């Protein structure tokens, strides 16, 4: 195998970022490179790893690995979907790999899922190299929109798209490149405008408490400035930096307790889940003392 | 800085193990090597990292980094100490860096702590390079025994040492090298023999659910074969493989609910803690569905 990617040396892929996680790196052994290209939006790499299955990398950052992807997809999908009493119409922004979609369609009550993905390359590569994730992209409940998620939400806000959602899941890449606008106040305001009254939104926070907790605090402050309720939870994913990823969940329904499920999975639904269960739903909101103090302190100066 | 250690290349330390976590690696940027030697028992490295403070490495495996060590020390110490109603006499096996000791002496009810460490080099280096961890090694409640933990427990079992313990904490290195015997049935039997009737023992499991869950199942089966109660919990530590480490906690007191604290920290005690709180005590026992099923399934064939 030749080393065709700048992040691969001597058959090891290494994720490094001087900007986002300086001084630490995570490596996976590469069996072979399956794809490398520059799409209209980002650098796209897919490789077969020795122990984590096929791995999708965008702009040098691991997006998903077949072995542990369920930990992320299940939590970002099922925490808001079970916190909601009866979600019918679901919007997924980003996530062209299809992993979140696969989880959403497991809910019998969900009638329609709209996937908004800017980069068709991600969908095409997932169909080819991540069949366990892309398997629900052709599900009859799923509609795919190839466009910018931000613009899509603007169209919803300006009634160019006449639809509101019960749950919106922002499964974006990190806040540089095409997903940069997904971490600003205007984006949260557009999310709010696209929600039904008891709707819930969840967004991957691109950070965790061990990395850039100041960034998480800012993001939580934005969320609190727009929504009545905002909470932070996390999921453990060994191929993500520091082994975990934060999720920010918001709602304007004050009666809603988003840290606990409103519905419990049926036996059939629970049998289809590998990570999520009602206990871990609640436990994922429990933080180490120092992190809880910083993230939940809305009056702190910076 | 010259690269004086086989795990350091171009100023990056990389933790690799074909045996224990093949196909993945974690790297920390090295500012300078502070110490490298071969003690009577193991290869010992201390380096200053760029973002995680000083780091202690034994036989190529990261033992602790100043920035995140509290996540491990607090959980392995306070989960059993708060699960116990009134711990007075505490034994710590391994942990010559002093981090666990520092946490144990925060409990006003604890009257005596015995530290059993086989490798004096670890204690000496911690005093020199990890002052925030070794700070309690000279605490008046602390007694240090420089000997093999296994032999120490045998002496207790054979009444050569006339003492029993309320809480025993096994803060060993991984099950190769000097700590190999700490992961076998006989060790758990010796732990049991050294406990007071309502005593609690906790041991670092050297693995986590994402790495070698079969090994954890075997370890849990050993624990269940010796103790009335055995449970698995974990703590998140970014410099440990896959970002988390498992802990196995056991007791012969059937009335005890070790997954919840019997005592709550006083305000003064809680103010001294950065990671542990009563909510995270319980949450640390909640596992993803697939892991809970495998770890708690005592009848599974292998």
From TrEMBL, chains A, B:
GO biological process: pantothenate biosynthetic process; spermidine biosynthetic process
Keyword annotations from UniProtKB, A to Z: Polyamine biosynthesis, Transferase
Keyword Cell membrane listed: no
Any one Gene Ontology molecular-function term assigned to this protein's record: spermidine synthase activity
Coiled-coil residues: none
KW Transferase (keyword) present: yes
GO cellular component, one term: cytosol
Domain of life where this protein originates: Eukaryota
Pfam family, one: Spermine_synth
UniProt cross-references to Gene3D superfamilies, sorted A to Z: Spermidine synthase, tetramerisation domain (2.30.140.10), Vaccinia Virus protein VP39 (3.40.50.150)
Domain PABS, residue spans: 10-252
Active-site residue list: 171 (proton acceptor)
Positions of transmembrane segments: none
InterPro entries, per the entry: PABS, PABS_CS, SAM-dependent_MTases_sf, Spermi_synthase, Spermi_synthase_euk, Spermidine_synt_N, Spermidine_synt_N_sf
Similarity annotation: Belongs to the spermidine/spermine synthase family.
Stated name of the protein: Spermine synthase
């Amino acid at each position: 195998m030749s080393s065709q990617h700048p992040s691969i040396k001597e058959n090891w892929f290494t994720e490094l970022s001087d900007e986002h996680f300086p001084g630490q790196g995570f490596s996976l052994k590469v069996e072979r490179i399956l794809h490398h290209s520059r799409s209209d939006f980002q650098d796209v790499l897919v490789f077969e790893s020795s122990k984590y299955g096929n791995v999708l990398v965008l702009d040098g950052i691991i997006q998903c690995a077949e072995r542990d992807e369920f930990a992320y997809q299940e939590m970002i999908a099922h925490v808001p979907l079970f916190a909601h009493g009866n979600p019918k119409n679901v919007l997924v922004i980003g996530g062209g790999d299809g992993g979140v979609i696969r989880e959403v369609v497991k809910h019998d009550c969900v009638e329609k899922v709209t996937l908004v993905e800017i980069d068709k390359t991600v969908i095409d590569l997932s169909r080819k190299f991540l069949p366990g994730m892309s398997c629900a992209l052709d599900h009859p409940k799923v509609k795919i929109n190839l466009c910018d998620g931000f613009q899509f939400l603007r169209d919803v806000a300006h009634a160019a798209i006449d639809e509101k959602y019960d749950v919106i899941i922002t499964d974006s890449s990190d806040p540089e490149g095409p997903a940069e606008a997904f971490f600003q106040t205007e984006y949260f305001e557009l999310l709010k405008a696209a929600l039904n009254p008891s709707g819930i939104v969840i967004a991957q926070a691109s950070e965790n408490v061990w990395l850039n907790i100041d960034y998480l605090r800012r993001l939580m402050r934005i969320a609190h400035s727009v929504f009545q309720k905002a909470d932070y939870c996390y999921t453990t994913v060994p191929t993500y930096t520091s082994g975990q990823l934060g999720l920010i969940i918001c709602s304007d329904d004050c009666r809603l307790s988003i840290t606990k499920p409103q519905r419990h999975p049926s036996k059939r639904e629970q049998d289809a889940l590998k990570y999520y269960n009602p206990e871990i739903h609640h436990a994922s909101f429990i933080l180490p003392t120092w992190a809880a103090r910083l993230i939940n302190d809305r009056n702190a100066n910076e």
